[in-house]
Amino acid sequence: MLNKIYDWVDERLDITPIWRDIADHEVPEHVNPAHHFSAFVYCFGGLTFFITVIQILSGMFLTMYYVPDVENAWKSVYYLQNEVAFGEIVRGMHHWGASLVIVMMFLHTLRVFFTGSYKKPRELNWIVGVLIFCVMLGLGFTGYLLPWDMKALFATKVGIEIAASVPFIGELIKVLLAGDATIIGAQTLTRFFAIHVFFLPAALFALLAAHFIMIRRQGISGPL
Amino acid sequence: MHRGKGMKFVGDSRVKANNRMVNMPKDYSEYPGKTEAFWPDFLLKEWMVGAVFLIGYLLLTVAHPSPLEGPADPTNASYIPLPDWYFLFLYQLLKYAYASGPYNVVGAIVMPGLAIGALMLIPFLDKGPERRPSKRPLPTAFMLLALAAMIFLTWESVVNHDWEAAAKQGEIKEQVDIEIDETAEGYLIFTGEQGKSCIACHGADMQGGAAAPALVGNELTAEEVADVIHNGRGAMPAGQFAGTEEELQVLAEFIASLKAEE
């Protein structure tokens, strides 16, 4: 049955080459923990992606209740945390996932660095990876404000002051992020929400796509 | 590549007919070493690693509910801010003499910028063919140094932060919902000329503020309230009440009557 559906689609769209590109390849011995246990260090990239998927899913569910508005943001998070069925679990996964993804991504970066995997011909993929790192930090920074509680507000005040200390364009960055030259308030919250939910995820998807296409094209780096 | 006459397509599309690749992995003998097919063998193992990881992740989630402090109050000037833990080392860096104040740009921009820039450009700085860490001492040493610095700064930041005060300043304050009888004698004294300095901190709604606790829902007797008004307590100075002793007694009894309902 499944084979017939596959053949029916394949006859019209010729999807077998796509399938081969995604899944049909060999995994070399030196990255397989079944052969060398120390090869578990090659798991960190995959785990980073795994948590990223969880972050996307849990984030989608959070937006069903979250209200990006100074009056209701904190109340909606409080309600989500204390009243909604499994709300505490979904928010908990998003909260802890945000930390775990940084840990896993950092370990992945260190693995690539210490195995020298950024060297020719993989320079571009390394740069894309560092950009993903920056986007993830941006997601962490913008997401921290959204519950609109005390620590969120004051940590963001500090963060925006640091951004404002950039020579020449600091003031512009500050106004772009905060929506106002002096107030951290309603505008800041909606902007951070938009950045956290639309702008940075869009950038992240594009960078991840580039990252994965390059890995499939170049293959994983050889043994040391 | 096959072109032109004799080619068959699916319908009027550009997808070639009768030219499909067989969906079968290459023979293992075409690869050296002990390789393994990604699909489905290796992916199954990755899923098992993912499942084990997910269990740990869920245990963390159920054991430690994600924190939520009280709603943001921009008027609170005494709040000591703290960023998320992975920014702590940057935050700590800004506390040192030559990375803050007039040198703020060094700690906030130059040092993090150099670090990210060097990280981004490492493929062009370290161009040799050697990949083993021991064969390229400079990149290895710089990375280990950066790691040590980040761990040290994070550690310094954690031990120098007053975690008890931080937990206290962020507490969610229960809003006590008690009907205040606005015609009571005690309330008139509170909002009158005698109680000016009361309202300044505790607010006309008696809900308190950044500088003082709420008066509604207190757990004191009238004598204890009178004592606090006379002698002060905590941040509250003594002798703030401007009325007579009788008025003070009425006020104390009124405040003591504002109990939360059981």
Describe this structure as you would to a colleague:
The complex is a heterodimer of chains A (224) and B (262). Chain A has 224 residues and is mainly alpha-helical. Chain A has one domain: Cytochrome Bc1 Complex, Chain C (Up-down Bundle), CATH 1.20.810.10. Chain A is built from 9 helices and 1 strand, in the order H-H-E-H-H-H-H-H-H-H. Chain A has helices spanning 2-13, 16-23, 44-62, 73-82, 87-114, 123-145, 150-164, 170-178, 186-218; one strand spanning 26-27. Chain B has 3 domains: 39-68; 85-170, no CATH class; 185-258, Cytochrome Bc1 Complex, Chain D, domain 2, CATH 1.10.760. Helix content of chain B is 46%, strand content 1%. Chain B has 9 helices and 1 strand. Strand 1 (26-27) of chain A pairs antiparallel with strand 1 (36-37) of chain B. Chain A: This is Menaquinol:cytochrome c reductase cytochrome b subunit. Chain A: The chain crosses the membrane at residues 39-67, 96-114, 126-146, 193-215. Chain A: InterPro entries: Cyt_b/b6_N (IPR005797), Cytb/b6-like_sf (IPR027387), Di-haem_cyt_TM (IPR016174).
Order of helices and strands of chain A: HHEHHHHHHH
Which class of secondary structure composition applies to the elements of chain B? mainly alpha
Largest sheet of chain B: none
Shape of chain B: elongated
Q: Per DSSP, what share of the residues of chain B sits in E-state strands of 2 or more residues?
A: under 5%
